[in-house]
Write a structure and sequence with these properties.
By secondary structure, the protein is an alpha+beta fold. Among the domains are: about 160-265, no CATH class; about 345-480, Substrate Binding Domain Of DNAk, Chain A, domain 1 (Sandwich), CATH 2.60.34. It is built from twelve helices and 25 strands. The chain has helices at about 1-5, 25-45, 70-80, 95-100, 160-175, 175-185, 190-200, 220-230, 235-240, 260-280, 300-310, 325-335, and strands at about 15, 20-25, 60, 90, 105-110, 115, 125-130, 135-140, 145-155, 215, 245-250, 255, 290-295, 315, 340-345, 350-355, 365-370, 375-385, 390, 400, 410-420, 430-440, 450-460, 460-470, 470-480. The strands form seven sheets. It has a seven-stranded mixed β-sheet with strand order 14-13-7-8-9-15-19, sandwiched between helices. A five-stranded antiparallel β-sheet has the order 17-18-16-21-22, with no helix packed on it. β13, α11 and β14 (about 315) form a beta-alpha-beta unit. α5 (about 160-175) packs across α6. The longest helix has 23 residues, at about 260-280. The relative contact order is 0.11. The mean pLDDT is about 90. Pfam families: HSP70 (PF00012).
Length: about 475
């Protein structure tokens, strides 16, 4: 979640551990990926499989709600391991789940609905309900078997850990924040076990549950409470809390009324359902007939029921082992990397340009002079708009830019992105500078009658920008956009 919440992510961004000690985030992620890689290679060696590192295509899955910076950050962390860039691909988690579900043989899902391969022309939504995030993609199967994205990947931080957080907040309301913090700090292993036990239990809680729900809580939490509150015990604290009529607590057993337990899910489920309702209002999504619910949080009966009740006219499918859909789908993506033929842009991309100044349109603050001629600077020259469908790997619209000085020997193209569909200036709110591309133009014999064309190509999770001298096609420069600056 740190990469999602960090708006000014760079290679120097620091991350804190549970004791407040800071370290470069990219080193933390790199070390984690390196550990997983080393474990796999050790297993291969021990099993004498003969598999070499050069034989492996590494697939790294990321949430769809991550921005371009976060995705590049993860790629660079993996390359620092090192993993060769040519042997590394990034895949959006719900897209991986989508491919997994499309390869399932005809079978019954966990609710006995028939699930199988989607036919040409069918549209479906994948809701990847994980621990930290809810990631959503909407796809249509094309005649050639490839997949077309119908709506830009989206979602929010409404994952299953939000329910965990509400549970720990409930405990803190009873024992006090200081006791809870001390417990988390001193008894880390017990705290992790508390969450693991809750994770298992929360999958069994359903809207039809009316019985008392019993949670196992580490005794060390009760002991910590008694140490901080001499003469008091956890049972007394529970009986005096605002939840006294809805729960009891004795040593390691917390017993809660079903209606209190279910309130832990209500807010998160409502946020997810409300977001899906908004999506189905979109023209390209409203006729989608199926919802594939995958991910660890998809195992929750509370979430399953909330979505089924809200979308009774949709075929809601939860495949068996829904929590493994992303992992298994990532393997499929590694073997079939080009299955997505088109995507929907999440942002508007363009180049900063200058045009002739028009006093009836342009503010005086944007006026600049070149050879006694008036120009307007900071123009956002749009190449691709947010919401636009782009063919993966295909160069997009070609635009030509000219020099403003007769003796100019190069053109510098500054690349920008915007949250808005029609940004006017690169200084508008929502615009972000990504990087620059420079092409040399040493032949000045044509004066200002010179220029270069610029095209952008979207490939997977990366963007390539190419500039070509319009008078000398052999003179070209290509770069990948550096989102981390």
């Amino acid at each position: 979640m740190m990469l999602y919440n960090k708006k000014n992510l760079t290679r120097e961004t620091l991350i804190e551990d549970d004791k407040g000690k800071e370290m470069k985030a990219i080193e933390v992620f790199c070390s984690t990926i390196r550990y997983l890689k080393d474990q796999l290679m050790t297993d291969y060696k021990n099993q004498a499989t003969g598999v070499q590192e050069s034989d492996i295509m590494w697939v790294l899955t990321v949430p769809s709600i991550w921005d371009d910076k976060s995705r590049q950050f993860m790629r660079e962390a993996a390359e620092k391991v090192p993993i060769c860039g040519d042997k590394l691909m990034l895949v959006l988690e719900p897209e991986a789940a989508s491919f997994y579900c499309r390869h399932l043989p005809v079978q019954k899902d966990c609710n006995n609905s028939t699930i199988g391969v989607f036919e040409s022309g069918e549209k479906y939504m994948v809701v990847d309900a994980g621990g930290g995030t809810i990631d959503i993609v909407v796809h249509e199967v094309k005649d050639d078997g490839f997949v077309k994205e119908l709506h830009k990947a989206n979602g929010g931080d409404w994952g299953g850990t939000k329910v965990d957080a509400l549970f720990t907040c409930l405990l803190a309301d009873i024992v006090g924040k200081e006791v809870m913090e001390t417990f988390r700090s001193i008894h880390k292993y017990d705290f992790i076990n508390l969450l693991r036990n809750f994770e298992v239990k929360k999958r069994t809680i359903s809207p039809t549950c009316h019985d008392i729900v019993t949670f196992t809580v580490p005794v060390s939490l009760s002991d910590t409470f008694s140490e901080k509150n001499p003469g008091c015990n956890i049972t007394d604290a529970a009986s005096k809390s605002k939840f006294k009529s809805l729960l009891t607590w004795k040593r390691d057993k917390l017993r809660m009324e079903a209606k209190l337990t279910k309130t832990l899910f209500d807010g998160i489920c409502k946020q997810i359902v409300d977001h899906l309702k908004d999506l189905f209002m979109h023209p390209t999504v409203k006729d989608v007939s199926s919802i594939l619910l995958v991910g660890g949080f998809a195992e929750s009966l509370m979430l399953q029921t909330a979505i089924r009740e809200a979308f009774k006219n949709k075929n809601v499918i939860i495949p068996k082992e829904a929590e493994l859909a992303v992992l298994k789908g990532a393997v499929i993506c590694g073997h079939e990397p080009e299955k997505i033929s088109s995507r929907v842009c999440r942002y508007t991309y363009g180049v900063e340009a200058v045009i002739k100044f028009d006093s009836t349109i342009h503010p005086k603050s944007k006026k600049i002079l070149h050879n006694s001629l008036e120009y307007c600077g900071d123009i956002f020259s749009i190449h691709v708009r947010v919401g636009q469908i782009v063919e993966v790997g295909e160069p997009q619209v070609k635009k030509t830019y000219v020099v403003t000085e007769p003796d100019q020997i190069s053109i510098e193209f500054k690349i920008y992105t915007s949250n808005n569909k029609e940004p006017t200036y690169t200084t508008d709110v929502g615009c972000t500078y990504l990087g620059k591309l420079t092409i040399d133009m040493p032949d000045t014999s044509k004066g200002v009658d010179r220029g270069a064309t610029v095209q952008m190509t979207f490939s997977g999770t990366e963007i390539t920008v190419t500039a070509v001298d319009k008078d000398d096609p052999e003179r070209a420069v290509t770069t990948k956009v550096d989102f981390l600056g």
